[in-house]
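pasting for ref. prot 1 ->
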Amino acid sequence: MKTRRQFIQQSSAFSVGALLLPNLGFTAAKKQKFGVQLYSFRDAMAEDALGTLKKIADIGIVEIESARSTKGLYYGLSPEDMKSACEDLGMKLTSGHVALDDNFQDTMEQAAASGQEYVICSSMPSDGQTLDNYKKVADQFNTAGEDCKKLGLKFGYHNHEYEFESVNGTVLYDVLLDNTDENLVHMEMDLGWVVVAGKDPLAYFAKYPERFPLWHLKDMNMEEKESTEFGKGGLDIANLIAHRKDSGVKHIYIEQEEYASTPFESMKENMAFLRKL
């Protein structure tokens, strides 16, 4: 038989635990790191890179993925200045979108100087929606992955919609996955474009587990095929985040290319949506 003292101790422990559970859930939500693809703020970054980075940090973004522009890979800043600017604002430059072209050696060297971990090819380096072309590109990606590894970088690829076209019953994106070395080519899945293409990201997480260390989290207006604020489009964001471990994701970058008002207001709305999850 329990003594009165034991009953009180157990009851107190239960009460404290009940109070802590919501806080633990809130803490876990706060610890989820969300980054942003700077193309979301392309015009503002071109006008005032440092001022825009400050506004992005104020929204609660903690990781940055750069994007090449007419002012270079870092919107007119040097790799070193971009790195220090982010760090001064409590953010970290972890990735960057680049082209796999004749200047790739310089691109890699700048990326290494910036301290970023990933170098992501943002579009197909050659034309041709054929199986042979995608196999050729896969070989190019493996080589680029080897070159990046020598400089302490990780190479990857960011999809759009067109990679999910089929040729003779074979999805072209699958050709890239099947013919690239997972230790050399790290896929950045743009979830919005996958859904627009009529494919299921969760099916890819199951078929190619832990092949997607980077995400572009982008809700999409399915009729217009344009990005929109979270919760207004066809992406089941809560379900995708619930299965994020299956994908092997390490960095989640929010990207929005079209806006109801301004990119800053849209990003605030997106972050508020994520906090509710």
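and prot 2 ->
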Amino acid sequence: MSKLEGRVAVVTGAASGIGKGIAIAFAREGARIVVADRSDEAQAAEVLAAIAKLGGEALFVRTDVSDEASVNAMAEQALARFGRVDILVNNAGIFTESLLENMPVDDWDRVVGVNLRGTFLCSRALVGQMLERGDGRIINIASQLGQIGGTSVAHYVASKAGVIGLTKALAREVSHRGVLVNAIAPGPIETPLLDGESDEWRSAKLAELPIRRFGTVDEVTPTAVLLASADGSYYVGQTLGPNGGDVML
């Protein structure tokens, strides 16, 4: 039997990058998928087609994870369609660069609003029905930068460090009630987010990585499948790091 057969998963930011890869990987394992993304359905067409090709079922809901009303509407649509949500992957995130001394307050608010507030809002919207059943998984996508810091990205680092802290706190609240909460902190992965980096940055980062290459989405998705499935039943409040050696704990 597939590892996620009969399960329902919400994946935020699922139209591209790591979220897209996780949504497809979950569908391959038998899950029904809610693709929640701020882009429109045309931009999500590729992931929806990939899920359909696997024989899976998907619902697209346009969602701004930083907006409470939008998140609550997404949760309502997911529950109306599928009756429950077993797995939530808080993947939606944004990234900008600025030295703290020059950082516009709007940039700080926008990055923290999507990356950290969005994780809170989506978790709050869906954890209740998991607790009612005594069963569920929440997987938060953090970043290795939330563990080691980074130059010109204080807002991003703070948001992802906050995601790691939120993961631990929520895990302590709900794990004894059947809901397991964990995080994944990928290193630099070849996604549209990384495409915006300069050649100078890419060269410098490659030189720092013990593995001397960036990762691929397919090297992150197995960790998500592990945490979502019965194989991950003893992981609680953990931050797993497919990061090419950028962080060694």
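The mean pLDDT is 97.
The chain has one domain: 8-235.
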